[in-house]
From TrEMBL:
InterPro entries: Cupin_8, JmjC_dom, RmlC-like_jellyroll. This is JmjC domain-containing protein. SMART domains: JmjC. Belongs to the JARID1 histone demethylase family. Residues 138-338 form the JmjC domain. It comes from Canna indica. Transmembrane segments: none annotated.
Amino acid sequence: MADEQLGNLWREARELSFGTSGQVERLESPPSPLRFLRDFVAANKPCIISRTATLHWPAFARSLWSDDAYLRRVLSGHSVSVHLTPHGRADSLVPLPPAPDGGARGLCFASACVRSMEFPEALSLIYDTGLPSSPVVAYAQQQNDCFRAEYSALAMDVEPHIPWATEALGCLPEAVNLWIGNGRSETSFHKDHYENLYVVVTGEKHFLLLPPTEAHRLYVRSYPAAQYVTTPSSSSSEEMGELKLEVMEPETLVPWCSVDPYPPSPEDVAKQRSRFPLYFEGAKPFECTVKAGEILYLPSMWFHHVSQTPDCNGRTIAINYWYDMVFDIKYAYFNFLVSISSHTSESAGMLCNSSGDVSNISEDSEPESKNHIVNA
Ligand SMILES: O=C(O)CCC(=O)C(=O)O
């Protein structure tokens, strides 16, 4: 498709629907179900609701989740899932392990090593691995309804659902997930097939958001799946040593967004900018910081990248409520859009390929979190 036409779509969608300021609309108080449905869900438009929405939750009213002694006591004896990576980026693109002949290799999609451990041990590990010297970063999370499955002892501290969202969407959440990370934890660009009500409880979360109309700007490509592995017996950061990356056999390809918005070095910045001009030279993504007590409505199909600033204790806690999305005409339009190739995106794909960094340049459309309970 002519990039001019794609550019028109991106501009028009922002002008007509999402706004051109790059800011996410903020609401001073929780919306009525009608307003939430009409102005945000139907419009597929994000918003942030102020902390007036959550002041009454015991987690906030009594500052329960800022108190490690409380969390350790209530969750003692409970096993939780912890994602371990060498750098804090779970589900992200990394170089493939070196070839036996030492030849150049491309990138792969690396999933974290997931370990189950008792909560007090997991919390200590999150603290220990927040230090830059730690060869491992621990992020307690599991996108399979982990709050209700693993943290049920904390159920009374929060609401089981967001009442105005439940009424607007006509259903209860399909999954409720808890996220406990340190300043090194990061989630790479992807999208989900859920209406997401994301509540930050301690610390801050920083989101970069791109609407589904701008899917081509993230250069979704297929990458071989790989997973970090470690010895099963150890759990403290010293005992754990280095994580090893194993490529899945037989080869399985995972479609994932190629863009890293925060490349680690100046050389990486230059590489990313030349490979992915649609992202780096186009309109800025919507950018927002969600603070303790605030709720981000992250509409279904929006691409998001998430990083965090810990609280004074050194951790960030968030809980999100995933409601089923409706697979309606917007979904059909989206699928049509991503079935179309962009010229710029294609030539950038060839560039990646010739430098040996991308294994497969075919455009693909489904970069969703890999451990969801439902993959639509
Ligand atoms: O908080 C994070 O690190 C990621 C959150 C996310 O991807 C989601 O809620 O869908």
